[in-house]
Sequence to fold (452 residues):
Amino acid sequence: MSLCCTLFRSILKSNRNLSIKNVNNNCQVLVNNFSTRELLKEAYCRTKLKCRSKKLPQDVNPQGVFACNELDLSEVKVYGFDYDYTLAHYKPTLEHLLYNLGRNMLLDKYKYPQEISKLEYKPDFAVRGLHYDIEKGLLLKLDSFLQIQFGAVYRGLTPVSTEEVLQIYKNRIIPIAYVEGDTRVHKANRSKMVHLADLFSVPEMGLLCNVAEYFIKNHIDYHPEILFLDVKNSVQSCHPIMHRIVAKNVEEYIRPNSDLKKYFQILQENDKKLFLVTNSPYHFVNAGMEMLVGTDWREYFDVVIVNANKPKFFTELSRPIRVFDKNANTHIWEKVTSLEKGIIYYEGTVKQLQDLTGWSGHQVLYFGDHPYSDLADVTLEHGWRTGAIINELTHEINTLNMQTFKENANWLQMLTQLIEDHQDYKEPEAVEIISEWMAERDFLSSASEGSR
Fold:
């Protein structure tokens, strides 16, 4: 029972003839006699009771479509798609394959210690969206304001304490110039921090942190930037090998999707145009699409472009589009003056795609998984509508729907408001209690992030 309720009842018991006005006056006099500590504790208890009676938010549909802007589908005449992690969704076996291929390359090409062959992939360690500081050798989480999320900074596989993080960076907020680098030099060379926006980069970061942890535990001196470059080159140079392995056994690596063909048929029946633009090579895409849709998958697409080299496909103007000879497995020299259904095209630019088809602006809806190379440029530069395929949302939403998470989220919100309402208290005992509230708030916030 709260202090106010107890106080109110004791006054009524002592004098049943008191009016409500007199009760309030007497209550105020008695409250004034309580210490700041007692009043703050009473405010905390009252807020806690209110939180317990607060209705929990409704569940979110994990299969839902979430619109950031209003979209009238009747205006959309053209549907475009990326391939990897958009049309083709991979099983965990693909991440293990990339990790193992990269690890073998470190051993065979770069002559790393043989003990590294024993380091197994940890699929739950890294997630998409993290940043890696190349110079300092740290994997960290930044929010949208470039604030470091304490408790989510790792050197190798070992968490770095808040005190050490502040000692390294001198501030919780990372300057944008440090994250994005000097804009006067080439983008590929200017930044000392990389963003894991690509799902293929997750096993790469797993290998990087595993090797760094091995060096640290065995007291082996290493250069973080050299390690980063070696791991990056090892994993990326293995992509052609990965393509060949997956193409030979697509069932082991690609999740089946019986609804995909039905979706394409619905779009065609409603006179929509379809196109595919992917960075992957033709033989890799063809093997996956034949499994997902059938050997006639090309009949659903008005334009198919492989090896597009996004994001350059969306930003460059002068790179010519070429015909790809799937039988000879190479592109040919002839100039492309029109785009024909059933023909496979190679490289090119979005400007040429728009010029040769007449597709442009809000009539195009393009789906991809990469927020930058797939989606940002075409929206900002060309006015396309975009849809992001974010598989990680399923796990996020399932976590958000848990009762304990909802209860903690409600209490975190109300506790934060309680702290803000009492932040002007300057008495030492008040500062002590509010500090305890803030510690509880930080713990709840970290626990919420950790559960996601």
User: Anything to note?
Assistant: Residues 5 and 46 are 10 Å apart (CA to CA). Residues 39-60+401-452 form one domain.
